[in-house]
Amino acid sequence: MSVSRTICLGFLAVILFGSICLMMPFSTSSGTWNDPIVALFTSTSAVCVTGLSVVDPGTYFSFWGQFFIALLAQIGGLGYMTTTTFLIMLIGKRFDLRQKIAIQQALDRPGISGSNQILRSIIATTLIFEITGVFLLLPAFVPQYGWNQGLWLAVFHSINSWNNAGFSLFKDNLVGYQSSPLVVFTVTGLIIFGGIGYQVILEAFVWLRERLASRKLRIGQRSENRLFSLDFKVATSTTLILLVLGTIAFVAVEFRNSGTLKNLSFGDQLLSAWFQSVTARTAGFNTIDIGKMTNAGLFITIALMFIGACPGGTGGGIKTTTIRVLTSCTKSILQGKEEVLLYKRKIALSLILKAVGVFIASIATVIASTTLIALTDPELNFIQILFEVVSAFGTVGLSTGITGSVTIAAKLILIVTMYIGRVGILLLMSAILGDPRQTRIHYPEENLLVG
Asked: How far is CA 52 from CA 126, 133, 151, 297, in A?
């Protein structure tokens, strides 16, 4: 079996396992068997780290149901291959070549060397950030809910924040904490670092460690300066640009909207706009009522959801690197250049073709899903349907409030869309059609009118 099929079938197996667990009577607060569609939708949303839900997780599910959601989100955030390979490490077995290739494809790494070390680093990074998030959220939840409930709320929301899942145990999500800098910056911090990619975090850690070590050298002894990789530069700069522009855009289009920002102080407006700019990048939490946003605000959110997070992170979307390569292609065309450059580095043609393929296939998936739901639920507004579909495809989890009321057919379409968004459209096509084979046949080149 090919590696791509192993990954895709692995995610399906985890979704099926989660659905069975969430169907059990002990997973619901009522103590009865769960609706199979609700269980399947919730399991898919958790494994695909989306956060869309057809029920209120905080009241509908028991502690065990909520525990399974957090567990599935953790597995989905780490990735099926990362999780299973880590379990293989725990029992003392060594990786074979197929497992190393699977890790390389799952993490979008250029090579297979150092798989053991990178896997340990990923697990350690995850634990450090999630445990830190728990301690930071405790002062916000414990005074109001007590130690037992407050601790569980901190653990649940820390896991969902780091994995960009977006499930919340509060009925209004995090609207009740829109004026709490502690909650806002803790959750957004976890979302950003979880979505920026493990490689970026580890590269920053190595750079910081070497900087501290260089200070201990004697005066006059020179140390080599580490150069950041192109991945690091593109991921960090694009993330920063999108966060700043998103915050400004949300303040600009929503500050007169009484349903979202108008009645808040200027400081709370900035907090809410910042949170919305961060969470739209595949997290799914919200501190304002999404259903009351203006059409302009919804469309800006759709654009951010479609772009998504960075490769190797816990978020979805077409990825920041994809949009950066495409914009650089446009820039090169406008400047009359025949090569695409990023930070004085030439982008390989294969990467350009991959970026174009991801973009076109993603657009096609969104169009197909939107059209199908428009047929199954014709009473819904187009902007609501498009918002829901892009949220599912980008594994975001934000909703205008229609998720629970759509037809069963629409729920199944959203389930498929979430799955495609999580495993990746190119990986899924490779699993269905088989791994591409290189050809030695070359055809003559001919000009074509474009644009």
From this structure: 23, 22, 24, 19
Q: How far apart are CA 82 and CA 76, in angstroms?
A: 10
pLDDT at 85: 58
The answer to whether the beta carbons of residues 317 and 418 sit under 8 Å apart is: no
Which whole-number Å values give the CA distances from 197 to 163, 201, 315, in the listed order?
11, 7, 9
The pLDDT assigned to 421 comes to 93
pLDDT one-digit tens code per residue, 125-142 = 999 999 999 999 999 999
Residue 166 has pLDDT above 70, yes or no: yes
Q: What's CA 94's distance to the chain center, in Å? A: 30
Percent of the chain topping pLDDT 70:
89
Confidence of residue 218 (pLDDT cuts 50, 70, 90): low
Task: Report the chain's mean pLDDT, rounded to a whole number.
Answer: 88
Q: Which 3-state string (H, E, C) describes 272-283?
A: HHHHHHHHCCCC
Cα–chain center distance at 93:
30
- The mean pLDDT value for 396-414 works out to 95
* Spatial CA neighbour of 202 closest among 317, 313, 290, 36: 313
